[in-house]
Amino acid sequence: MIGPGFASRLFSLKGRVALVIGGHGEIAAAMAATLADLGADVVLAARKRALCQQLAQRIEQDFEVRSLALACDVADEAQVSETVAAAITQFGRLDVLINNAGTSWSGAPQDIPRSGWDKVMQVNLTGAFLASQAAARHMLERGSGSIINIASTGGMTSFMPNMAQIVPYTTSKAALIHLTADLAAQWAAQGVRVNAIAPGSFESGMLLSVDAARRDALCSRIPAGRLGMPVDLAGAVAFLASDASGYVTGQTLVVDGGGVLV
Q: Are 111 and 162 in contact (CB under 8 A)?
């Protein structure tokens, strides 16, 4: 009911549990902090459990919620299933899944080895499907849940060789955007929403290794005039994870300072 405090209640995640796969690094930290600040208990999972554990400790101390770190290789179906099961066993439920694990492979497309192509697809696409599948089994039984895939504006555009040669990455993210819509269509009537966030060029991850000239070239193409910061994703995560987006599914929310406009 619309009245005093209703907007705050829409965004509240108090009593809910969120799992972030790809659960370390600056982007993961911003998302985990957002979820925790809204009241959710947060599970962080990745191959490097020690890094997840460091973030989990910070989340517990700063936000006074429960947090758990787990080891998970998203390319391993058994580990993905075990991770989802462990989160549910520990906290009794799972309300939000964020598929944030990602990798890339650079090089001229004619020279990319099959192993490089397969690695990117297994992590960025197949891993997201396996995690969504495992989480959805629980969410469908409960009749509610929000799955958020971290895509990329790279999945909506193509690059000239002088800007980037990351064909496996951009292809995987394009497929992830379509997977988001397909799963949303399958599960919407049963209360499970599936959406994606497509960040543009951000001050994190792979972009930190890009030389200054290329970074300047990227900035010149962004209407906002700057690269994104991890905190710029907080609002999108808060919206898609909460009841504020209760009638939103199958969508990809672009967070790129207007980069796809030009």
A: no
258: which 2 tokens?
């207007």
pTM for this structure? 0.96
Q: Whose CA is closest to 16, among 225, 231, 254, 242? A: 242
HSE, CB side, 13 Å, CA atoms: give it for residue 128. 28
Q: Which of 91, 129, 169, 187 is catalytic?
A: 169
Using one digit for the tens of pLDDT, what is the confidence trace for 172-213?
A: 999 999 999 999 999 999 999 999 999 999 987 666 667 777
- Spatial separation of the C-alpha atoms in residues 143 and 191, rounded to whole Å: 5
Does residue 254 sit in helix, strand or coil? strand
How much is the average pLDDT of 160-174?
93
Phi, psi of 45 (to 5 degrees): -140, 140
247 is catalytic: no
Classify residue 132 by burial, with Cβ atoms within 10 Å: 0-12, 13-18, 19+: buried
Residues 5 and 156: their CA atoms lie apart, in Å, by 38
Q: In degrees to the nearest 10, what's the CA dihedral of 214, 220, 222, 227?
A: 50
